[in-house]
Design goal:
alpha/beta; seven-stranded mixed sheet; two-stranded antiparallel ribbon; globular
């Protein structure tokens, strides 16, 4: 399945936007969390700074988000993970409101009450959760709703390879196959479940092999390549729209940063990240576009300037937005 010129350029620009957004957040997140700005005796204060709480970034995993979301329509549903920004950006979630949510501001998607692991945007049919494996059952629900309404909409559940050992994974795949639901299960295999290497936690080499146990296709993309993901996801999504049921897609991708910001990453072999970065998927796609005559230096610079302006605006908007009023503490929450 070949991508059009417009799709290819969208994928490239979106990957750059995701990377710059994540790298900017990595810097902003540390503001006020390190000495001497924190209490004496502490090395790191997770609750301080403009973005309190944990932060999970996905730099390096951009091909999974853009390769899949390039095929989606506004009516399609995406359910992400606790590492959700690349999916959200690729699905079209507004940067201003998403960033404000992470800053705990009233202008955020959830009025500042959810934070970065609980981004909900009904307008773009996007949501995520901090619970491992929690993306799969809601995606089945969205797919079932589409099927009962007679629509050719699809739902996508993103999850990590560690989540494939959760009961929700097996229950969701069984139900989706049994009811032939229009859902795509996408496993981001970045080798590590928090700090545990996949070979020490998972009984099979490839999660996609588990699809056979549920009577659905299992597809493996064994390289961190946006075009390869695009082709595999396109076939699976087209199959779902035709009413032929679910697919399990596994992508071997790379996580450049720690499980969370502040992670010492002592479990990684020395030099591993440097080696991964030598195969960065963004320059690889850029070179492909240049060989195809779709990109030159001037276009690349203009694209990057456009991206930088959008991201700078989002962070400025978040910083300048008001916090929720104390009297609104019980609004927009279950109680």
């Amino acid at each position: 399945m070949s991508a059009t010129r417009e799709r290819l350029l969208w994928m490239y620009e979106t990957m750059i936007a995701i990377r710059e957004y994540e790298e900017t957040m990595a810097r902003v997140y540390l503001e006020g969390k390190l000495p001497p700005a924190i209490q004496k005796g502490l090395a790191f204060d997770i609750g301080s700074g403009p973005v309190p709480g944990e932060m999970h970034l996905a730099a390096g995993q951009e091909p999974v988000a853009v390769g899949v979301c390039a095929h989606l329509r506004d009516e399609d549903t995406v359910v992400g993970t606790h590492r959700p920004h690349h999916f959200a950006i690729a699905k079209g979630v507004p940067l201003n409101a998403m960033t404000a949510e992470m800053f705990g501001k009233d202008t955020g998607l959830g009025h500042g009450k959810g934070g970065h692991m609980h981004l909900f945007d009904p307008a773009h049919k996007f949501s995520c959760s901090g619970i491992i494996g929690a993306s799969l059952p809601p995606a089945c629900g969205a797919a079932l709703a589409a099927k009962k309404r007679g629509k050719d909409w699809v739902a996508v559940a993103f999850f990590g390879e560690g989540a494939s050992n959760q009961g929700a994974f097996h229950e969701a795949l069984n139900l989706a196959a049994l009811w032939r639901l229009p859902v795509l299960f996408v496993c981001e295999d970045n080798k590590y479940g928090i700090s545990v290497e996949k070979s020490e936690s998972t009984s099979v080499r490839w999660v996609s092999d588990r699809a056979a146990g549920y009577g659905m296709p299992g597809v493996l993309v064994d390289r961190n390549d946006a075009l390869a993901v695009y082709e595999a996801a396109g076939a699976a999504i087209a199959r779902a729209r035709r009413g032929e049921g679910p697919t399990l897609l596994e992508v071997h991708t790379d996580r450049y940063m720690g499980h969370f910001q502040g992670d010492a990453e002592v479990y990684r072999p020395k030099g591993e990240v440097d080696e991964l970065r030598r195969h960065d998927p963004i320059p690889a796609l850029g070179e492909h576009l240049r060989r195809q005559g779709l990109l030159d230096d001037a276009a690349d610079q203009a694209l990057r300037a456009r991206v930088s302006a959008r991201i700078a605006e989002a962070y400025a908007f978040a910083r300048s937005s008001p916090y929720p009023r104390p009297e609104d503490a019980l609004r927009h929450v279950f109680h």
